[in-house]
Amino acid sequence: MRTAIHQFKEMKARGERFPVLTAYDYTSAKLVEQVGVPLILVGDSLGQVVLGYESTIPVTTEDMLHHCRAVVRGTKKAHIAVDMPFMSYHAEWPEAVRNAGRLIKEGGANSVKLEGGRDLERAVRRMVLAGIPVMGHIGLTPQSLNQLGGYRVQGRTPEAAASLLQDALALEAAGAYAIVLELVPAPLAKAITERLSIPTIGIGAGPHCDGQVQVFHDILGLFEDFVPKHMRRYATLADGVREAVGRYAADVKEGRFPTAAESYDMEEALAEIARRS
Ligand code: KIV
Q1: Is the CB of 21 under 6 A from ligand 1?
Q2: Which residues pair with residue 134 across a beta bridge?
Q3: Low-confidence residues of the chain, pLDDT below 70?
Q4: How far apart are CA 81 and CA 99, in angstroms?
Q5: Omega cis (within 30) before 38
């Protein structure tokens, strides 16, 4: 049985912080689950770290379905949340509910995440009524990059801070089971976390959130295009990959790979036939 949404609320009530990590494929999801991460996000950050786009904006529902299925196949216990991509939930709420339903039904996800606050109240309510658990995402919302004009800390003025709190309360009232706070000053994240009964999950939002989320490729040092201040590297795997692939390439060029032990033999008589034919 996978971790259910009520368990995250219970963790908050017990004061138990929980880790959340992104994963985009079978192998990485399996490794993440093996160390007990209870919530895996198939983030649309895959647009940058897997597909090489400049932002998350070009990512499609088909992209999310493809990667979500792989993550679901690699896991048994973790709750799998999947991002709804840009423009899959903005136009009309019936379309938003249908697209969320596809990610649950065809992708095998346990919940969906969408970026925005009060403006999405109706869509969130209808998804929850349809039995689709929803995670909110406020603060820096990367799908609104063109509107926001860059990856900047949000909620720094009294008006902006009050607006973010209203967004959080509206999402909770609409039935969201958790809210990601991205690039929000730590004191504001603390205030929002204390006002909500549902958990907050921070990224660049300080230490007071109920959970923390990071991007798989960032914490492992696999993605080197940019290094946000709020990210901590737990490994430098890009160096390890370059070193290992470099040795492999050199071994092939120098004839050290493969050896006889890494090859398949056949009986001498058959080998002779093969040589003659
Ligand atoms: O797409 C993503 O990975 C995300 C997290 C960084 C919160 O939305």
Answers
A1: no
A2: 112
A3: none
A4: 14
A5: no
From the alpha carbon of 182, which atom of ligand 1 is closest? 7
CA 218/CA 88 separation, integer angstroms: 26
Q: Is the CB of 110 under 6 A from ligand 1?
A: no
pLDDT digits (tens, 9 = 90+) for 30-42: 999 999 999 999 9
- Model's pTM, two decimal places? 0.96
User: Are residues 267 and 203 both part of a single domain?
Assistant: no
- The single-letter DSSP state of residue 58 is T
Assess whether 79 and 33 both reside in one domain.
yes
What pLDDT is stored for residue 212 in this prediction? 98
Torsion angle of alpha carbons 91, 167, 172, 81, nearest 10°? 60
From CA 270, how far away is CA 277, in angstroms rounded?
Answer: 11
Q: What is the DSSP letter of 116?
A: B
Sign (positive/negative) of CA torsion 129, 196, 16, 23?
positive
- Distance in angstroms (rounded) separating the CA atoms of residues 110 and 39: 10
Distance from chain centroid for Cα 3: 16
Please indicate, yes or no, whether residues 262 and 145 belong to a single structural domain of this protein: no
| Active-site position among 182, 194, 254, 272 | 182
* Structural domain containing residue 249: 240-276
Ligand 1 lined by 45 (C-beta under 6 Å): yes
* Residue 169, amino acid: L
The closest residue, in CA terms, to atom 3 on ligand 1 is 43
139 close to ligand 1 (CB < 6 Angstrom): no
Residue 182 bears catalytic tag: yes
Tell me, yes or no, whether 169 and 269 share the same domain. no
* Ligand 1 atom, smallest distance to 113 CA: 8
